[in-house]
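Prompt: May I have another protein with tokenized structure?
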Amino acid sequence: MESMQINTSQLAFPVSLILGTAFLIAIFSLSAFGSSTHIYKMLTSIKTTIVVTTIIVLLLIIEGITGMQIQRTWIFVLPALMFAFILGLVVLKRLSKRFDLGFTMNHTGLLIIAWAMIFGAADYREGRMMIYKGGSENLALMETGETMPLDFHIKLKDLLIDYYPDSITPRQFYSDLQINDKEIKVSVNSPGRYDGYMLYQSGYDTKNGQYIILQIVRDPWILIVWIGVAMLSLGALIMIFRKI
């Protein structure tokens, strides 16, 4: 499985954007100039859609059961790319016949989500760092074992504990962070944000309150994903209320 792993570092921005743009151009080109070809008819058939969708679902189930990172391999990415490509062709095919606002928004939203998640994966960064009270760090450790250097240092000024009325049981842990001249307070259910990074408090010293573990996430494509989610949901609502 390791031999099938994708080296995302070589596909990060601007390569990710170039590949994503080329992918969309390929969809429009095949729809505009190849609608009478055998490959177009095969890709837009219900049978192909069912097969590709089934493969993706099965791979996700296998990943969930075994814990293997299948989504980071070509075994998963190739059918995911085909699914997004088919989805784009289906939307354009439907538009060429008649405009349906609900269907168009719903399926276009799904396409945007799939497109952003596939091509934005190379720009996604996630790591964890341990910071002691009074100390500062700028290196996070990723699941792959690689370090994720930040352009700034995060200092843990203080770790505050909020107790239940019994004054013994901790109810919440608040971390006062300082990044350059900005002070940020984070807790388990209230992440912080700085320079495009989300800062989640994923762990802390429950005994002595001397350190915290921060989960550092950078996902520059997340806004595009949320736009897709909004379109997907709105399109679904339009189709539902149209049938009532």
